Amino acid sequence: MPRFVDPVERRNAVGQAVWRVVKRSGLAGASVRAVAEEAGLSTGSLRHYFKEQRGLQRYAFELILERYEQRLTRIDPALPLREQIEEALWALLPVNPEQITEEQVRLEFLIQSRLDPELAVLAADDRAQAVRLTREAIIALRDAGQAPPGVDVEATALELLALVDGLAQAVALSPESMPAERLRQALRRWLDNLAGSGPIGAER
User: Fold this and answer.
1) Could you read off the pLDDT of 123-136 as tens digits, one per residue?
2) Could you tell me if 100 and 108 are in contact, meaning their C-beta atoms sit under 8 angstroms apart?
3) What CATH number does the domain located at 61-195 have?
4) CA 180 to chain centre
5) DSSP assigned state of 147
6) Is 71 left (phi over 0), alpha (psi -120 to 50) or beta?
7) What pTM does this model have?
8) How far apart are the C-alpha atoms of 84 and 107, rounded to whole Å?
9) What is Dmax (Cα atoms) for the chain?
10) Angle formed by the axes of helices 7-25 and 32-39, nearest 10°
11) Cβ(120)–Cβ(113) under 8 Å?
12) C-alpha–C-alpha distance, residues 40 and 2, integer Å
């Protein structure tokens, strides 16, 4: 009797195979044939799920964005506000080997999105969601008295997102120089400075 193959599980495995190929050979190397070989499938079997290379790559990018959403939904709403916000920002950072691979591949997709309209739509949606998350974080902190009442929400949200982006890229480029604890300290120092009403980034 043939073994049942869960199509969702198979597509996820293929998406992760794309990540490994992209990390090793770049997006140009992530052909249907190369990904099929990485995933241990025949080219014909892979084409059952993905007809062409662009669809395969687009799915792999969508899978990275889906992982971000999954991490956000696992945050305990019973946590104190500050801890919830820390965990939400933490969800955007590559803090283990698999998430480092995700970030390295995500950067490849973001570069390619300048030339690929379909990837550009995904990249724009990813950016909009990140801006929305940081904006909501600043508003919540302000309303809870953990940020200055007159804080410029839009500018401060973009500064926070720039910090998160910069930390994530630093890990992607040099994982050994940016351990998880250093990332956590950077986030907490920024939030502490915001709560202290002084210039963001200033020493307390």
Assistant:
1) 999 999 999 999 99
2) no
3) 1.10.357.10
4) 15
5) S
6) alpha
7) 0.84
8) 26
9) 68
10) 110
11) yes
12) 18
The tokens of 123 are what? 């990249």
| pLDDT score of 1 | 39
Give Cα 20 to chain centroid, integer Å: 16
Q: Is 75 left (phi over 0), alpha (psi -120 to 50) or beta?
A: beta
**Distance from C-alpha of 190 to C-alpha of 153, rounded to nearest angstrom:** 15
What are the helix (H) ranges across 74-152? Answer: 81-90, 97-112, 117-143
Note the pLDDT tens digit of each residue in 55-87: 888 999 999 999 999 999 999 999 999 999 999
- Give per-residue pLDDT as tens, 191-201: 999 998 544 43
Spatial distance between the Cα atoms of 61 and 68, rounded to a whole number of angstroms: 11
Axis crossing angle, helix 81-90 with helix 117-143, rounded to the nearest 10:
160
Provide the CA 75 distance to its chain's centre, in angstroms: 16
Question: What are φ and ψ of residue 142, in 5° steps?
Answer: -60, -45
- Residue-level pLDDT at 201: 39
Find tokens 């690929």 and name the residue.
116
- The total of other beta-carbon atoms located within 10 Å of residue 82's CB is 17
- The domain segmentation of the chain, as residue ranges, is 61-195
